[in-house]
User: Which sequence fits this backbone?
């Protein structure tokens, strides 16, 4: 049985019972088979003269085989509604089985009634599913105690037993099956939600990893490629052999450095290939070498660094921000001094890079425009603040990059 189908059928059946103007939905094919099979079985029992009570039984008010057909036909109709309108089928079937008691009775009628009780608990509303077993249980107890108390005959106990078998047994079975079905449905929904959350986490992890790789690739290679582009342009445009040779030396140095950075990135992506371990991530102590390389590329750079113990993620972020700022200064800045300041105090690591605001028609080397985006993302990942833009200074108009990283809070949290 499909739980989604069962719930949909129950919802449609309940709506049809509550709204009299609505027509009852068509019964399912399986319910039609049950109704037809029960009716044919009852007719066969009537044809061979087999009833549940003899004709001379005191409670048999309507003698003969034909009165048995009325409750039999009614219960067959109730089977058609067992899934689409279970409460209506149960109420009508209860009246029919009571009418069957005052006839010679039919085993087919009783069996169809037990199925109607079972279906009312399984497909009915949650309130009915818990109420019907209680009611039938009380009726079984009452059918056992009351007749025995009145008649003082052991045979009187059979009334309660029959009531329990015909009513309470199917109701209890239906409740057990319903609980198992609901538990299976809940487990299925939890599994679907878990799979959905896992897929969302995987997608977010892939997106974050791709963004991290893009930042690393841009920051590690862009500086060297920009220097290569600028000096190769100079070497091609100038006819001075000495200047061209100096440019080629710088191009070679940046090519080697860029290749080393690329190998490091490949080592990170492969998570150690087994033959060469990836180089350690750059730190604030490496800023001197970075600035020296920028001077080699033609920038007039000053460096001022004051820091204590800084966690590795903050050191890497600060290093990359300085690296990208120097790359942008190499491509965009006008003539003049570039200042780099890294200062740690009061739990904050502040990175400031200023350069003369260039008046060029365009950059000296092509760029992707992702540098500022990458710096902003690095800062945001560490809950810091970032700003970049032109400013006025005593020396004239400058381009300033400032990033503030809250190292103090992270260090305290790690220590705790």
Assistant:
């Amino acid at each position: 049985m499909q739980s989604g189908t069962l719930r949909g059928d129950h919802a449609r059946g309940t709506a049809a019972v509550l709204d009299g103007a609505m027509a009852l939905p068509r019964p399912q094919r399986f319910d039609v088979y049950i109704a037809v099979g029960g009716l044919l079985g009852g007719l066969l029992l009537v044809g061979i003269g087999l009833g549940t009570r003899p004709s001379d039984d005191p409670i048999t008010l309507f003698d003969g085989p034909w009165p048995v057909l009325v409750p039999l036909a009614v219960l067959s109709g109730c089977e058609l509604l067992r899934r689409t309108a279970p409460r209506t089928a149960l109420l009508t079937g209860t009246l029919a089985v009571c009418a069957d008691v005052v006839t010679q009775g039919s085993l087919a009628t009783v069996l169809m009634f037990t199925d109607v009780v079972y279906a009312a608990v399984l497909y009915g509303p949650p309130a009915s599913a818990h109420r019907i077993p209680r009611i039938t249980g009380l009726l079984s107890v009452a059918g056992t105690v009351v007749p025995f108390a009145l008649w003082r005959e052991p045979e009187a106990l059979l009334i309660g037993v029959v009531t329990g078998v015909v009513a309470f047994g199917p109701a209890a079975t239906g409740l057990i099956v319903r609980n198992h079905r609901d538990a299976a449905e809940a487990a299925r929904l939890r599994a679907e939600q878990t799979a959905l959350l896992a897929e969302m986490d995987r997608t977010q992890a892939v997106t974050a990893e791709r963004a991290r790789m893009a930042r690393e690739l841009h920051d590690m290679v862009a500086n060297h490629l920009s220097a290569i582009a600028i000096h190769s342009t100079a070497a091609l445009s100038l006819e001075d052999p000495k200047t061209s040779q100096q440019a080629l030396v710088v191009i070679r140095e940046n090519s080697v450095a860029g290749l080393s950075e690329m190998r490091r990135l490949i080592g990170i992506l492969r998570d150690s290939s087994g033959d060469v371990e990836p180089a350690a991530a750059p730190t604030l102590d490496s800023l001197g070498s970075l600035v020296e390389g920028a001077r080699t590329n033609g920038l007039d750079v000053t460096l001022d660094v004051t820091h204590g113990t800084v966690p590795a993620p903050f050191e890497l972020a600060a290093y990359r921000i300085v690296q990208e700022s120097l790359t942008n200064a190499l491509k965009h800045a006008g003539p003049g001094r570039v200042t780099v300041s890294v200062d740690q105090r009061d739990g904050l690591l502040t990175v400031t890079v200023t350069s003369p605001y260039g008046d060029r028609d365009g950059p000296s080397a092509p760029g992707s425009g992702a540098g500022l985006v990458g710096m902003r993302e690095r800062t945001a990942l560490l809950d810091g603040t970032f700003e970049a833009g032109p400013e006025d200074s005593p020396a004239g108009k400058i381009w300033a990059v400032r990033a503030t990283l809250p190292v103090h809070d992270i260090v305290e949290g790690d220590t705790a």
